[in-house]
Amino acid sequence: MAALEPYEAALRELRDRSRNRSLSARRGIDFTSNDYLGLATSTRIADALARALAGGTSIGATGSRLLRGNAPEHEALEAQAAAFFGSQRALFFGGGYVANFAVLSTLPQRDDLVVLDELSHASAREGARAGRAEVATAGHNDCSAIESTIRAWRSRGGRGHPWLFVESLYSMDGDRAPLADLVTLADRHDAFLYIDEAHATGVYGPDGRGLAAGLEGRDNIIVLHTCGKALGGSGALVTCAGVLADFLINRCRPFIFATAPSPLMAVAALEAILILRDEPERRTRLAELVAAYSLHVRLPNGQRATDSQIQPIIVGDDRQALAIALAMQERGFDVRAVRPPTVPEGTARLRISLTLNVDVGAVTALGEAIREQFESGARWAYE
Predict the structure, then answer these.
(1) Which of 133, 210, 300, 337 is 20 to 30 A from 72 (CA-CA)?
(2) DSSP string of 48-63, one letter each residue
(3) Is the pTM of this model over 0.85?
(4) Per-domain residue ranges for the chain?
(5) Nearest CA-CA partner of 219 in 88, 92, 131
(6) Does domain 22-41+280-380 have CATH number 3.90.1150.10?
(7) Which residues contact 203 (CB under 8 A, 6 or more apart)?
(8) How many CB atoms lie under 10 A from the CB of residue 111?
(9) Domain 57-278 fold
(10) Residues designated catalytic
(11) Environment class of residue 315 by beta-carbon count within 10 Å: exposed (0-12), middle (13-18) or buried (19+)?
C-alpha cells in the first residue's frame, strides 16, 4: 500500500542509523529494570491484592474519577500518600508520563514561564509545550543558567510565575539535582518548583520518602512519585497544595477525561508505601549493592561510578552500544543500550540498574564481564 511507504522509509532510516527499536523479551540477570527494591514480586503486595479481590475490589475503575471511577481504594491511597510524604494533598494518575504531561500542561498559566533542565524527561518537555506558558531550557543542574533565564524573561515583560522542573535523580545519568539551591532560587523569584522523584521515591530519604523529603507541604512545591519503579506497581502520585489539587481535578484534561487507574493498583501502591516504612533493610541492601558496584566494576575511559542505583557506561557510538549490550545479554546479563534521542547525541550508553533482584555476587560477575567485554574491543579499551 503506497500510503505506508513514508512509514517504511522512516523505519529504514532508523535502521540505517542504528536507531530502530523493537520489543525484546527479558533475558538473563536483571540489570536493566527500575524495580529497585524488588517489590514487583513482593508476596506482601500480592497478599494485599488477594485480600482486596476477595473483599470485592473491582479490577477496573469503570470510569473517570469524576464519574463512577472514584473508588475508595483511590481515596485511601491518596490520603496515605499525602500523610506519608508530608503534603497537603495527593492525586493518583495512571502513570508517570501522563502525570508529568498533565501537571505541566495544566498548572502553568498563560503569563508564566516553564524552565526545564536540559536533561528533563520527554513527558515534561511535551507537557510544557502542550500548555499555555512560555517554555525555556537551562543547562543541566545549572542554577545560574535558570536564574539568567528568569531574569531575561522578566526583562522582556514576563509577568507571571516561573515554574522550574527538575528530576531529583536523573534517570540516565544517576546524578542529583541541587534541590536546596533550587528551593532558594524558587523562593527568590516567586516561582513554583516541580520535582520529579521517579527514581528517588522509595530509595532515598527518611522511610524512602525521596530526596525531596522535608520540602513537601510548601505551597510552591509540587512533587511526582511514580508507583511503577521502586514501589513495584504502576501509576503515579502527584503531591501538592490543596488548591492545586482541586485545580487539577477541575481543569486537567488527562485527569478528567481518562478512565481512572485500576483500584487494585491503588491497593498495591498503598501496601508498597507501608513496606517502605516497615522494611528499611531493603534500602540498606540496595546501598550495599551500589557500594559493591563501585568496588568491583572497573569502567572504561576514566569513567566513574555514580553514588546511586543508576550506573551509566558511556560508549558514544550507537552501533557499538548495541553490540556491547547484545554481548552482555549473551553472557547472561540483561543489560540494555540507550541511544539518542533518549540521551544526547554522541552519548549512547549502557544503563546499568541495580536492584534487589541481584546480589553482590551477581554484581561482581557483571564487573568481570564488563571488563572482559570492553578490553576485547579496540575502540572501547581502558585508558
Answers:
(1) 210
(2) HHHHHHHTT--SS--S
(3) yes
(4) 22-41+280-380, 57-278
(5) 88
(6) yes
(7) 36, 37, 169, 210, 230, 283, 286, 308, 309
(8) 13
(9) Aspartate Aminotransferase; domain 2 (3.40.640)
(10) 34, 121, 167, 171, 196, 199, 229
(11) buried
